[in-house]
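U., I forgot to send this yesterday:
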Amino acid sequence: MGICKDVETGPPRQEAKRGGVRAALFVYAMEGLENMAFVANAVSLVTYFYGYMNFNITKSATTLTNFMGTAFLLTLFGGFISDTYLSRFKTCVLFGCIDVVGYALLTVQAHFSQLRPSPCKTPEQMDQCDAADSGQAALLFTGLYLVAFGTSGVKAGLPALGADQFDENDPEEAPLISTFFNWFLFSLTVGGIFGVTFVVWISSNQGWDLAFGISTLAVLFAVIFVSMGKSVYRHNAPKGSPITRIVQVFVAAIRNWGLPVPEKSQELHEIHDKEVGMEKEILQRTHQFRFLDRAAIVSTASGTPWRMCTVTQVEETKILIRMFPIFLSTIFMNTCLAQLQTFSIQQGTTMDRNMLGGFKVPAPSIPVIPLIFMFILIPLYERIFVPLARKVTGIPTGIRHLQRIGIGLVLSAISMAVAGAVESRRKSVATQHNMVDSLDPLPISVFWLGFQYAIFGAADMFTLVGLLEFFYAESSKGMKSLGTAIAWCSFAFGYYTSTVVVEVVNKVSGGWLASNNLNRDKLNYFYWLLAGLSVVNFGVYLVCASWYRYKKVEVQEELGSSACDE
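Result:
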């Protein structure tokens, strides 16, 4: 990274009191509380749809994955709003309030039985059960998608808000950005652990209305906590629409198509020093996608950004294009993740969930296994692995972002292979004890599922933080929120792809996953298919990562200024 300083009014000492670890603590608090609610519902809504809204197994799974996919896809809108109109702080508060309203509606529906269809007495009567009427379905989906909309803005703005508290141009603070993302994942993990244990236990034993009510209060307190840090945050100033700047580059490149591209970068248009107050960084010219360089050709006919853009603006567009293949090659891992939040939960309902002392583990609490694994692994990674790797590689983060993502993709493939083996074991137990069509729990512990969950937990630790940090670090100053939103969108397309994959596999295979009886389905074949496709996907990722070129920032200094903050 280069050194960029911006002329600002106000005493530097007052600015120095802002940001840092103290400001990040409020971000950690919001992430933990918001994720407690979100993850608790992500792992258990399948049972709510199936047992309370009378959806069949496949519809329950696809409804959840569509909800999850929408929540992550809408982060693009939240990121756009944050970069263009609102600060990251205001975005988190506004969308957090929307999140609260969504959970409140779900609480009301779960509390009043007349707002839900009549429950089925036995699973065999699913075909004869009353379906939710239009009003009941409308209330359900309104609440669900308000939650999705609210969550999207929080996920887009919150990581960037936290990372903004550390100046990437300060040699002392820059390494702390990577540390922030590791502890951000840690706070996400702690919230998830409480969600899949405490909140899920409440939903299974005390009622869904109470569980949704706790989620409502958790998000409400999340908004309060992040608001408490307002006076110590370094606030970013919106810099206009990044989408408009990108479109301007393509329009200008097309309009200048007949002009020759200069070989020397100095002959292209750029604004340096104090010609403009909004310019925070100067991106150096790269030689990929040279056709876009035409947008920065200096011409007598040039006068507007729709005909002549800066080199920095052109490079901002190139960065997005370069990141796109990386984004695409991480989608399939999240398709695998969706299976662990749907079919693996349903597997757990058929297994022995008793622990010592007679406590019965709710099936949706099974994902606590990877979360506990991550809870232990993240501090070890930050405190032991990173310092050791830093001594070997000389890289402040230990390993590069793309290397971290690649390790996660490999572990994801291994997790799916193990999941297929565990499912084969579960089905063999059902056959051996003549319990293929029985509703009683099979004599096999639910903790067999822990193997696939633990491996995938490690995969998530590497890939999720790697993606967030990669997109934040590589994005230009004016689109940090949109950059982290793109990282979350990998989850969105993963969930949507999951829905398509399940339907296609059902159709092509003749019904591997078509029945309401997992003991007769071919879920193990499905897992092994995902493992094979994950290996192919990793090969594609290696090609994309080898082709990628990190951005270069020109060293730029202005006297009498304070460190630039967005």
